[in-house]
Design goal:
Number of strands: 10
Shape: globular
Radius of gyration: 25 Å
Number of helices: 24
CATH superfamily of the largest domain: NagB/RpiA/CoA transferase-like
Number of domains: 3
Distance between the termini: 52 Å
CATH architecture of the largest domain: 3-Layer(aba) Sandwich
Structural class: alpha/beta
Length: 461
C-alpha cells in the first residue's frame, strides 16, 4: 500500500505550520483565553465529574437506541407541522435542499453556524446553483470572506488575529485597515441585518434533536441563529443522526456542559427550542420548516463496537483546545470538517479509513482529550483502537511494516540492544530514522554504552 495523497499533504502542512512562530503565537494566545474562561466556568458545577458521568451514560445509551428515538422525533416533529427528510450521504442531503430551494423559488440564503453544513459543502452547492449563501456567525463570516474553511469546531477564525481581520475587511469592503474589533463587529452587524431582511431561506444546524418534543435545540452567542430561523419564510435544519436526546428536560444537563466546555460560559447567550413552522396567530417564524437528518458514514461508525462511543460527542471543541498536536499543527492541516482528537477518531469512518487512517496516528496519546471531554468519551483509547483496526486491514506501507517488525524485535531483546555500540546505532538511526524525524529536528545521540551495561559495570557486586 502506498501513502495516500491526503497523508502526504498532511505531513507537508504539519511540518510547515508546526514551525510557524506567528501562527503558534496566535493559537497560544487564543487558547489561553479559552482556558482561563473554562476554568472559571467549571466552578458552577458542584460535582462536575458526576455531571459528566451522567451525560456520557445518557448519550451512550441513546446511541445504542438511535432508531427508537429518531422515529419518535420524526413522529412529533411531523405533528408539529414540519417535515423530516432522511439523507444517507452528503449528495442526497444537498439534492434534497436544492429541491426545497426550487420549490420555494429561493434566491438568497442566510446560515447560522453549522459544522454539518460544512460537512456536506452546502455553500458550494448553493453557489453553483446561483443562490447566494451567506454565513452569519461572525467567525464563519470572516473565514467565508477569506475563502477558507473553519479552523475550529467552535471558533472558526481562531487562527486569525484582530489585525488579520482588519486587513481582510479593508481588502473586501474597503474599510479602514485600523478598525478595532468592536468596530469590525458593528460593521458586520450592519451588513448582515440587511441580508436577514432579504433572505428567502434560513439554514441552521441543531445542537440537539429532542425526541419527545419533536423540536431542535440551538445554542449560540450572537443572535444570528434566531434571526436566520425567524426572518426568512423557510427554515431548514441539518443535523447528524447522533444529535438526538430523549427528553426536553435533558437540556438541563447538556446545555450547561456544552456552554462551559465550549466557551467557558455558565450558559450561552441565546438558547432556542424550535418545534416547527409558525402556527396560526404567531408573528414570528417560518412558513415552512424542514429537518434533514444525515447519516453520511455515521452508521459505519455505529457498527464499530468501541468507536461508536465517539458519536456521543456534543461538539464543544474542548479536546481540540487541550490537544498538544492540534495546538502545533493547527485546524486546517487536518483537511477535514472535524479536526483535532475527536475528528481523528470519527473521520476515518465518516469518510474513508484507508485514506484518513493517518489522522489516528497524529496524536501523542497523552490522554488530555479524554480528561476534558464533557461526555466522558475515552478519545485517546479510541485512537488506539483505530490504529489497531487500520493495521489489521493492512493499511500500512511496506516500509512501515518492516520498521515496526525490526524495531519490535530489537526492543524486546536486551541482547540485541547491547550487541552494538552507540556509534553504530547513531549511523543506523541516521540512515533509517533521520528522514522521518524531520529536517528541522536533530536526532538525539545514543550513548556509547547502554544503560544496562553501565548499570552492570557500576554494580559488579
Amino acid at each position: 500500500m502506498n501513502i495516500s495523497p491526503e497523508h502526504k499533504t498532511f505531513l507537508k502542512q504539519a511540518e510547515k505550520i508546526a514551525f510557524d512562530e506567528t501562527h503558534r503565537e496566535k493559537i497560544r494566545f487564543n487558547i489561553s483565553r479559552y482556558d482561563q474562561a473554562v476554568e472559571k466556568g467549571k466552578g458552577m458545577f458542584k460535582n462536575l465529574d458526576l455531571a459528566r458521568s451522567r451525560a456520557g451514560f445518557l448519550k451512550y445509551k441513546i446511541i445504542n437506541d438511535l432508531d427508537k428515538y429518531l422515529i419518535q422525533f420524526e413522529d412529533h416533529f411531523t405533528k408539529n407541522g414540519g417535515k423530516v427528510i432522511w439523507a444517507k450521504d452528503a449528495k442526497e442531503a444537498v439534492r434534497e435542499v436544492l429541491k426545497i430551494t426550487e420549490a420555494h423559488q429561493i434566491k438568497k440564503v442566510v446560515k447560522s453556524k453549522s459544522m454539518t453544513t460544512e460537512e456536506i459543502e452546502l455553500n458550494e452547492a448553493l453557489q453553483k446553483n446561483k443562490i447566494e449563501s451567506l454565513e452569519t456567525d461572525l467567525g464563519e463570516f470572516i473565514v467565508q470572506q477569506a475563502g477558507q474553511k473553519p479552523y475550529h469546531i467552535v471558533t472558526p477564525a481562531m487562527h486569525m488575529s484582530k489585525t488579520d481581520v482588519a486587513e481582510l475587511y479593508h481588502e473586501k469592503f474597503q474599510t479602514d485597515e485600523k478598525l478595532s474589533p468592536e468596530e469590525l463587529t458593528l460593521y458586520t452587524r450592519h451588513l448582515l441585518r440587511q441580508k436577514f431582511q432579504e433572505a428567502d431561506l434560513g439554514v441552521s444546524g441543531a445542537n440537539f434533536l429532542i425526541a419527545d418534543s419533536g423540536a431542535i435545540a440551538l445554542t449560540e452567542n450572537e443572535g444570528n441563529g434566531m434571526l436566520s430561523m425567524s426572518f426568512p419564510k423557510v427554515h431548514i435544519a441539518i443535523a447528524g443522526i447522533e444529535k438526538i436526546i430523549p427528553r426536553l428536560e435533558d437540556l438541563d444537563l447538556f446545555w450547561p456542559l456544552l456552554a462551559t466546555h465550549g466557551t467557558g460560559q455558565n450558559m450561552t447567550v441565546y438558547n432556542s427550542i424550535i418545534s416547527g413552522p409558525a402556527r396560526e396567530g404567531e408573528k414570528d417564524g417560518p412558513e415552512a420548516m424542514y429537518v434533514v437528518i444525515l447519516d453520511n458514514g455515521r452508521t459505519r461508525l455505529l457498527a464499530q463496537e468501541r468507536q461508536r462511543q465517539a458519536l456521543s460527542c456534543i461538539r464543544c471543541g474542548a479536546c481540540l483546545n487541550a490537544c498538544p498536536v492540534y495546538k502545533n499543527i493547527g485546524g486546517h492541516t487536518y483537511d477535514t470538517t472535524y479536526s483535532g482528537p475527536i475528528g481523528s477518531v470519527i473521520t476515518p469512518y465518516l469518510q474513508d479509513q484507508k485514506t484518513f487512517k493517518h489522522l489516528s496516528f497524529a496524536s501523542s496519546l497523552c490522554g488530555k482529550c479524554t480528561e476534558v471531554c464533557p461526555v466522558n468519551i475515552p478519545i485517546h483509547e479510541l485512537l488506539l483502537v483505530n490504529r489497531s483496526d487500520a493495521m489489521e486491514k493492512g493499511y500500512y506501507t511496506y516500509f512501515e511494516k518492516k520498521t515496526n517488525d525490526v524495531s519490535t524485535k530489537a526492543l524486546l531483546s536486551r541482547k540485541m540492544l547491547d550487541l552494538v555500540g552507540g556509534k553504530i546505532k547513531n549511523k543506523g538511526a541516521k540512515i533509517f530514522v533521520e528522514k522521518v524525524w524531520g529536517p528541522r529536528r536533530s536526532l538525539p545521540d545514543f550513548a556509547d554504552k547502554s544503560f544496562s551495561k553501565q548499570w552492570k559495570e557500576q554494580h559488579k557486586e
